């Protein structure tokens, strides 16, 4: 069968109409046939009633003579007659006469001996219709007349009706098919509109969506599903694009540095110590590249539903202390002290790994942008609705014009110092993403050469 929905609908509609018209035609023909049969029965009854006066005389009547009289009177031929005289006392047929012995089989029917005068019964005998009527009753005798005539099943009316049905049915089918084709075209027109809309969507305009205006409800679910698929596709496409753009943007500088160091090393023979220094610089840049790639990959995994599946009940104070222990080793490289002055025992529902990454990135930034031999203070407050984690450093600070942009990817307030200290411009972007997943708020206040205060508001 064709894969075209339009042709399938037309085919099923055609088959359905063939069945309906056939059944309807058969019903009409059988009803007409029954009407003709009723006419035959009416004729038999009228003839039976008409002969009643003839049986009030004495003696037996002859069926042949009566048949001839009836044929002449009613112009019905062939018409066969059987007259039965039934004895009520002996309960046997007293006398019977038949107009045609070779048609005796037409009267092989039961005799209703207990019927009342005027009761009539009809029987089908092949192409004949036979009737039996009690027409007269004497003291000891019941007189029955049985008539047989051909059923008028081949009447001109039935032939004309049958011919009309045979001719009309294909014409009606053709008309119905044309109407169905028009209706199906109108019904499928929204689908064509959707197809046109879908074809207009490409990688250059993935933000475009298929409109559900004036669309039947049965198709709306399909469009909603497709639009959701477009949302997922756009999200994935944006992640790939962002990763590509971000990688090319951020990896260009360290790769250029590495290339430059190698080119310098190969220009002429050097002392072993000089090679060590060059290799050390290359190693530092390679480590920076590794950090950038890890952070880029993390940013690319922004499927918040999957991340939220790992939410569980945890102790916030333990998460903070574990993170501090991890960063202390890094802080020792600059002889920076990290002091947890006030940590409140608290239970929250969150993703432990993500929360540690967010706090760790904030502490790393505090270490990176603080001078040697300084300190970083950590403490907690709380109110009725939230816990507030505060991280304070005595670092270089951030200019006021840069504060609104610090959570943007690759934004660096002090670009020279950021590169020197190994910052990638991704740490705070990751922090913001993690806190948004948890519906936590972050606030940053900073003054140049005085320090920075970071407040994370964690919902209870």
From TrEMBL:
Cell compartments where the protein resides: Membrane
Residue ranges of the TM segments: 9-29, 161-184
Domain HAMP stretches: 185-238
Pfam families according to UniProt: HAMP, HATPase_c, HisKA
Histidine kinase domain boundaries: 246-460
UniProt KW keywords: Kinase, Membrane, Phosphoprotein, Transferase, Transmembrane, Transmembrane helix, Two-component regulatory system
GO molecular function: phosphorelay sensor kinase activity
Name of the protein described by the UniProt record: histidine kinase
Naturally occurring in which organism (per UniProt): Sulfurimonas xiamenensis
Lineage: Bacteria, Pseudomonadati, Campylobacterota, Epsilonproteobacteria, Campylobacterales
